[in-house]
Amino acid sequence: MNCHLPQELLVSIRFCYLCRATLPEDDEAWVRPCRCVGPTTWIHQSCGRQMVQRFETLYPTKRPRCRFCRTRYILVPKKGPIVRVMQKILLKLKSIVDIELIAAYPIIEAIATTCGCLTLSYIYGHEEAKQLLMERNPVEAATTCALIGYGLWYISDITWEDWLLRALRRCSRVPFLKGVSPREYPDSLARSRKRMWSICSAIAGGALLPVYSRIIGTLMFSSVESP
Fold first, then answer.
1. Which sequence ranges are marked TM in the entry (predicted)?
2. Residue 17 predicted with pLDDT over 70
């Protein structure tokens, strides 16, 4: 059994259960503040505002609720002209540009610059990297560090696993490498899979590239002295 009355019937018989009046006829003067149905459905906005003000005066630490269904009243203040204009401007901007991307760009730029500075400090040493950056223009130094960070992220996003798999398949045709690199591979490896890109994996991979290069350089070129 549906206990909710039709909307047309509610509008035709609505009256304020606080002041027991049925006027005015303006729809903006009426409000349904809770889940109640029947004679306690509608109230005047002015009556409801006065009721909430009296309740807050008597019980300042409690939140006003409906006395029948115990629904908590949510009070929305009236919007001024400045707020309405700002909302319209924000809706227009959201339809034109991506606000989230603009807000996240300074954070990404700061992370890339920090990653570039740490890379220079790790490769050249703290004092030499500091001297290298201090000799340049601040804008040029910040741009260089940011480009280093972006470059590391893009390099770490290269699908080198697919290239290595293709190289192993080609090496399997060589007679003396057949035992090491079998000719047949599982279908799961043969299918091309799209690599899931995430910001965390890109940042972590880019930050580890200088460490890998330092280790490889130490192992392979330890006898070469830097000028």
1. 199-221
2. yes
Q: CA 204 to CA 115: how far, in whole Å?
A: 10
Structural domain including 71 reads 1-76
How many domains does one find in the chain?
2
Looking at the structure, tell me whether residues 123 and 206 fall in a common domain.
Answer: yes
* CATH number of the domain enclosing 1: 3.30.40.10
**How far apart are alpha carbons 94 and 97 in whole angstroms?**
6
End-to-end CA distance of the chain: 90
Q: Answer yes or no: is 108 within a domain.
A: yes
Let me know whether 131 and 207 are in one domain.
Answer: yes
Q: Are residues 171 and 123 in the same domain?
A: yes
The pLDDT assigned to 182 comes to 53
pLDDT in tens, 105-132: 888 888 888 888 888 887 777 888 888 8
Position 203: which residue type?
I
pTM over 0.85: no
Strands 30-31 and 43-44: antiparallel
Radius of gyration of the chain (CA): 34
Instruction: Decide if 81 is inside a domain.
Output: no
Q: pLDDT tens across 44-76, in order?
A: 888 888 888 888 888 888 888 888 888 888 777
